[in-house]
Amino acid sequence: MSDSLNLTLVQTDNIWMNNLTNLENLDKQLNNIKTDIIVLPEMFSTGFCMEPSKIAETMDGLSVLWMLKTSKRLNCAVCGSLSIQEKNKYYNRFLFVTPNGIEATYDKKHLFTFGKEDEVYTPGKKLTTIHYKGWKIKPFVCYDLRFPVWSRNTNHYDLALYVANWPANRSFAWNSLLTARAIENMSYVVAVNRIGVDGNEIKYHGDSKVIDPLGETLIDLKESKTVRQISLKINHLEKVRDKFKFLEDKDEFKFKD
């Protein structure tokens, strides 16, 4: 295991439903970055759009190919979610890409019914654990954050990773729930949200952040358009869990099919 994990958080605005321009802008922001993982927001190349027939890509589409190319160029992992079409269905799919290819995917489980996401996208059914540089990483997408059972740390993952398009008018919930997930699961939490205003006139405040297993905020990007880096230490996580063995007292449960 690597003692440290270097992450780059990309909090950015985007041009509504314009993947080419958004990817070009990301290239400028990520020029010569040195890191282990680049974390991008939910639907980072289009915005959170409920017209997948107009924006969805296949797994060999422009945005996926950009992730593969960027990963190789910068020699790091790249992750974020995209609108993906597969077998006549649409998914809000998180991808974790390394220079070796697509290492893992996760389809958003909790679709945002308030925004009618459930009417056009198909929910995922399975959690995913990513093993990278000796770290165990659990990816989630936006609305998943509201459901603590889905984020439950049953296998001692080290890092919960949330990518989102979380609106400004619910930022209090975003900030509160992220802290709660870190504390209750005794894990690092890394959360990347967007800023700006989308094509539906919804405003986003960003508030991307990194929280340690004690609930302390290590980075808070507020409303800025920025790229920030941080190094997480596994020994800090191990010391916290060794001192406070709360996860050993967890209740058992099973998901129903």
Automatic annotation (TrEMBL):
<protein>
    <recommendedName>
        <fullName>Omega-amidase YafV</fullName>
        <ecNumber>3.5.1.3</ecNumber>
    </recommendedName>
</protein>
<dbReference type="GO" id="GO:0050152">
    <property type="term" value="F:omega-amidase activity"/>
</dbReference>
<comment type="similarity">
    <text>Belongs to the carbon-nitrogen hydrolase superfamily. NIT1/NIT2 family.</text>
</comment>
<dbReference type="GO" id="GO:0106008">
    <property type="term" value="F:2-oxoglutaramate amidase activity"/>
</dbReference>
<keyword id="KW-0378">Hydrolase</keyword>
<feature type="domain" description="CN hydrolase">
    <location>
        <begin position="5"/>
        <end position="234"/>
    </location>
</feature>
<dbReference type="InterPro" id="IPR003010">
    <property type="entry name" value="C-N_Hydrolase"/>
</dbReference>
<dbReference type="InterPro" id="IPR052737">
    <property type="entry name" value="Omega-amidase_YafV"/>
</dbReference>
<dbReference type="InterPro" id="IPR036526">
    <property type="entry name" value="C-N_Hydrolase_sf"/>
</dbReference>
<dbReference type="Pfam" id="PF00795">
    <property type="entry name" value="CN_hydrolase"/>
</dbReference>
